[in-house]
Amino acid sequence: MKCDSLSLKKYIDKSPKVFFIYGEEIVLQNYAKDLINDFFKKNGFDEKKIITKKDFPNINKILLENAGGSLFGSKLIIEIIHEGGKVPKEIIDIFDLSKSEDLIIIIRSAIKKVTQNAAWVKKIDRSAMIVECNKLKSFEEKIWLKNQLSFVSNNDIKKYVEIISDLFQGNLVAQQNEVNLLKLTYKENEQIKTNLVLDGGEFSPYDLEDKIIEFNTSGALRILKSIHRNDDHYAQLLVWIIGKVVNTSVIAMQNPDIRKGLENAGIWSSKIPSYKNFIKVNSMKKIIPLQKKVYELDLASKGLAGKTKDQFWQDLDNVVIELTAA
Fold it and tell me: Domain boundaries in the chain?
């Protein structure tokens, strides 16, 4: 089966629980992955395992060992990260395995296009849901953006769609960044804002991004301490900034041209050298698990993770320390 990312919701429950996500639009890849995870989490798949390139020779063994769920009897989602290049035989062979009711398999591939009549594509088509994440047409972008702005009042949504799409036409990453910022700052009928810069007392929360990609652990922790003391209502924004560094790094690592990947992610040209150095020192193995930690921090910042405020700020410190450990 095939579908585009924006139609996935209609077909997600009709899939054989194996998904192959590819395409040039990384935001739509992330949207598809999150939609699949959220849908099956509600259906009891509450544990997740990530497989990267180093584990490819053992993929079949890993899948067979987990076919009955986790060691603790939980249903499992396995996410396989294919960083680009030819899809390896180890991944293609997955589609010959019998399917398990206790296992969801998500394959995220950095390849941009596929040849529909290729033998391996036909094989996947028979055994999985192929989710295409291609660039959107202008009118599709506005529909997508409007859906992302569901938290904005009916009075304001049209003007926000117009100004964000005009400023960042063709760049869903930048549009998504604006939406995420707006979620933290929006007030109905307030004068429109884009690229908002906040004053966090002694420091701006946005200073944190620079300190992290420069591996300045003490500087980053100093910012967290200052904002914790003076403006702890910026907790969600801090989590978003850390998530931006993590997700931008993953996007760039999946692109054969790191600079192009950073540009596509909406990174300012002045910051690209620092990001390139940050990515050079890090690896997918280190960065990918941090996506889950950022997700947990996001829940905690909203009071949804059962953590005390002190635990949240300590976990925030720990993630920053891990990110800045060169």
Answer: 2-132, 138-185, 207-323
